[in-house]
Design brief:
By secondary structure, the chain is an alpha/beta fold. The protein is built from 12 helices and 14 strands. The protein has helices at 15-33, 45-52, 58-65, 89-99, 123-126, 166-182, 197-210, 223-232, 244-257, 295-307, 312-327, 345-360, and strands at residues 2-11, 35-41, 69-74, 104-110, 130-136, 148-152, 155-159, 186-191, 217-222, 239-242, 265-269, 274-278, 330-331, 341-342. Bound molecules: 3-isopropylmalic acid and magnesium ion.
Length: 361
């Protein structure tokens, strides 16, 4: 029997609830596919700060490095909001990305037809939208030095540095072309090369790499224009590749275009490690009430099955079961609309698991 070890980092807020729900889905995968998952929990984020004084303890990092994949809930909350930037729960996320060298962040945004009314756009504009934002995750202004708040002539000045080496650009661009090849063979590279040198280099490297992928249609968009096109013609995009900060912003935009943030999964992958987490945050306002939407985390686990374990058919099954559950009208409050059946985290998970069983049979 195939065995995989999964590092489970539940995190803060609704993190524990949605991860628990997802582990139940994975249990069903074990049953249906005869694989075995071993879990080991680690601390991250606010709880890690409370218990160890740091948002990413070394033991957690070690655990991740000794696992086949990492499943993460969400981190952060008001309790830790007033800490300085380098002590905040988010720092744990940034550090784990960097330490595991998870340079490509895959954020699929597709419209679920039963939820098409959840999109703020007209159904005819958003219908058929199915894109994947590949966000570079370990470089850019997030990590560039120098950074800080300094004093100059008695006045404070805030500094961050947008920085990319050509190798950093190349590896994420290659990955994006490879992914585009397995999809609809369209790649949009997003930059700000009309203003920024770092973006000029980005574009040059994309052009170089594109020579090896003549079968993939390439377009370049400036980030401001891309932000507009995403709402004007979302269904024309296939794969979008961009840097860390532009990708942070555009992937949120892509998410809202297709409906609810509660539905968006993500994978952060490098050459050795991979981490799977929902795009949404820890939603402290609804934590512990049993109403959180587990779907983004469940779909993140489906990405884990596909990208880390090569279990494509199990991954398809989970995705189909989610779609079927939506078709049946089940909705957590965040995606509820009139005439649907409002359910909590647990019932939503029960329905998904039932549908897995039914669809597999
Ligand atoms: C994300 C988040 C993080 C980011 C924050 C919480 C540090 O917005 O994963 O998109 O900016 O990368
Ligand atoms: Mg973000």
């Amino acid at each position: 029997m195939q065995r995989f070890k999964i590092a489970v980092l539940k995190g803060d807020g609704i993190g524990p609830e949605i991860v628990e729900a997802t582990l139940r889905v994975l249990k069903k995968v074990e049953e249906l596919y005869g694989v075995s998952f071993e879990y080991e929990e680690g601390l991250i984020g606010g709880r890690a700060i409370d218990e160890t004084g740091t948002p990413l303890p070394d033991e957690t990092l070690e655990l991740c490095k000794n696992s086949d994949a990492v499943l993460l809930g969400a981190v952060g909350g008001p309790k830790w909001d007033d800490l300085p930037t380098d002590k905040r729960p988010e720092k744990g996320l940034l550090k784990i990305r960097k330490e595991l060298d998870l340079y490509a962040n895959l954020r699929p945004a597709k419209v679920w037809e039963p939820l098409i009314d959840a999109s703020p756009l007209k159904p005819e504009v958003v219908s058929g939208t199915d894109m994947l934002v590949v966000r570079e995750l370990t470089g850019d202004v997030y990590y560039g030095e120098p950074r800080g708040i300094f004093e100059e002539n008695g006045k404070r000045v805030g500094v961050n540095t947008m920085r990319y080496t050509e190798d950093e650009i190349r590896r994420v661009v290659v990955k994006s072309f490879e992914i585009a090849r397995k999809r609809r063979r369209r790649l949009t590279s997003v930059d700000k090369s009309n203003v920024l040198e770092v973006s000029g280099l980005w574009k040059e490297v994309v052009e170089e790499v594109s020579k090896s992928y003549p079968d993939v249609e390439l377009e370049h968009l400036y980030v401001d224009n891309c932000a507009m096109q995403l709402v004007r013609r979302p269904n024309s995009f296939d794969v979008i590749v961009t840097g860390n900060i532009f990708g942070d912003i555009l992937s949120d935009e892509a998410g809202v275009v297709v409906g609810s943030l509660g539905m968006l999964p993500s994978a952060s992958v490098g050459d050795r490690y991979a981490l799977y987490e929902p795009v949404h945050g820890s939603a402290p306002d609804i934590a512990g009430q049993g109403i959180a939407n587990p779907i983004a985390t469940v779909l993140s686990a489906a990405m884990m099955l596909r990208y880390s374990f090569g279990m494509d058919s199990a991954s398809d099954l989970v995705e189909k079961a989610v779609e079927e559950t939506l078709n049946q009208g089940y909705r957590t409050p965040d995606i509820y609309s009139e005439g649907c059946k409002k359910v909590g985290t647990e019932e939503m998970t029960d329905r998904i698991i039932e549908n897995m069983e039914r669809l597999k049979a």
